[in-house]
Amino acid sequence: MENTTTADTYFTRRLAKKGQPLIIAGPCSAESEEQVLTVARALKAAGATTLYLAGKAGDLAEPLKAAGVDGTLHAGGDVLALLTGALAHATNA
Fold first, then answer.
1. Tell me: the pLDDT tens digits for 69-82?
2. Which domains does the chain have, with CATH numbers?
């Protein structure tokens, strides 16, 4: 994805159910930090109300939060709390 406008258009057309929690994968060696942030912003702009990142945020915690990522799913994290929150969000949406 070259820019946010392209990403916005892409996800706007493909977001099946607005308001449902989403899990996005990354960052990994295949994605740059900017790609992950661009996709997160595009998903929020397309109507996603909750985004979860698969992986530990590390140094990207603040930029990810600013881009709209609501939580992370990673080894050693509180998966039960994350899933409980996702379920509560999904049933109240």
1. 988 888 898 989 98
2. 4-92 (3.40.50.720)
- Structure tokens that stand for 63 in this block: 């930029």
pTM of the complete model: 0.68
Distance from chain centroid for Cα 32 = 15
At residue 18, what are phi and psi to the nearest 5 degrees?
A: -60, 140
Handedness of CA 71, 77, 79, 85 (dihedral sign): negative
Cα–Cα dist 9/26, whole Å: 21
How does pLDDT run across 9-36, given as a tens digit for each residue? Answer: 555 555 545 555 566 655 565 578 888 8
The DSSP-derived string for the chain is --SHHHHHHHHHHH-SSTTS-EEEE--STTS-HHHHHHHHHHHHHTT-S-EEEES--GGGHHHHHHHT--EEE-TTS-HHHHHHHHHHHHHH-
